């Protein structure tokens, strides 16, 4: 169950909107430019959090990521570029509710990923259940894009290895000095 204004039907307060945006801008500035190593680590963890995984009961050593966040997809594509994955090995497909416009969503995602809409494979259509009340509707809904890397078993194994390395490396983590956190988050 959601809390706050969402359950009361009242709009969220606009007070503090400038402060929230300033916090986001300041945090973005803290990141700065990423090195190749930074992007390697970010991409590996991004994939491990959001990509498909191999299971002992279902061998799938291939790189497939599905998401509805355009920033995440752009970072993923930059990461694949860093790794030298040719664009010709990438396949794109939508996963989208039947009530949405497939054509409009393909145009949207084609622009995000930098290809023509014709490069998209046939969409996976999510059939609406009459008992489900969807909140992801309207002009901002573009479904999810599925990015598949062809011939990616070796890359998948590398990702798993990088994540193991990050896990081991994080055990030796010593807390760096970070900016003071506000209790009013």
Compute the gyration radius: what is it? 20 Å
Tally of alpha and pi helices: 6
Distance between the termini: 21 Å
Q: Can you give the helix content as a percent range?
A: 40-55%
The fraction of residues in strands falls at 5-15%
- Uncertain regions spanning at least 5 consecutive residues: 1-10
- Please outline the major beta sheet: 4 strands, mixed
Largest sheet, spatial ordering of strands: 1-4-2-3
Mean pLDDT: 86
Give me the strand/helix succession.
HHHEHEHEEH
Q: Determine the structural class based on helices, strands and strand pairing.
A: alpha+beta
Envelope shape: globular
Number of strands: 4
Can you describe this structure?
The protein has 185 residues and is of the alpha+beta class. The chain is built from six helices and four strands; from the N terminus they run H-H-H-E-H-E-H-E-E-H. It has helices at residues 5-8, 17-31, 36-50, 70-82, 102-113, 153-171; strands at residues 63-67, 90-97, 124-126, 144-149. It has a four-stranded mixed sheet. Strand 2 (90-97), helix 5 and strand 3 (124-126) form a beta-alpha-beta unit. The longest helix has 19 residues, at 153-171. It is globular, with a radius of gyration of 20 Å.
What is the topology?
Layout: H1 5-8, H2 17-31, H3 36-50, E1 63-67, H4 70-82, E2 90-97, H5 102-113, E3 124-126, E4 144-149, H6 153-171
Parallel strand pairs: 2-3
Antiparallel strand pairs: 1-4, 2-4
Helix pairs in contact: 3-4, 3-6
């Amino acid at each position: 169950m959601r809390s706050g204004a969402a359950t009361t039907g009242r709009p969220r307060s606009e007070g503090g909107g400038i402060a929230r945006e300033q916090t986001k801008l300041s945090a973005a500035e803290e990141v700065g430019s990423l090195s190749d190593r930074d992007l390697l680590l970010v991409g590996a963890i991004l994939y491990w959090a959001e990509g498909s995984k191999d299971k002992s009961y279902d061998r799938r050593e291939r790189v497939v990521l599905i998401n509805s966040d355009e920033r995440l997809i752009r970072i993923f594509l930059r990461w694949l570029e860093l790794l030298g994955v040719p664009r010709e090995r990438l396949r794109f497909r939508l996963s989208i509710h039947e009530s949405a416009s497939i054509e409009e969503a393909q145009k949207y995602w084609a622009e995000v990923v930098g290809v023509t809409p014709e490069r998209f494979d046939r969409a996976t259509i999510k059939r609406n259940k009459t008992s489900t009340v969807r909140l992801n509707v309207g002009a901002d809904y573009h479904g999810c894009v599925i990015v598949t890397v062809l011939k990616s078993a070796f890359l998948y194994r590398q990702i798993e290895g990088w994540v193991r390395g990050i896990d081991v490396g994080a055990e030796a983590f010593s807390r760096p000095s970070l900016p003071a956190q506000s209790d009013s988050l």
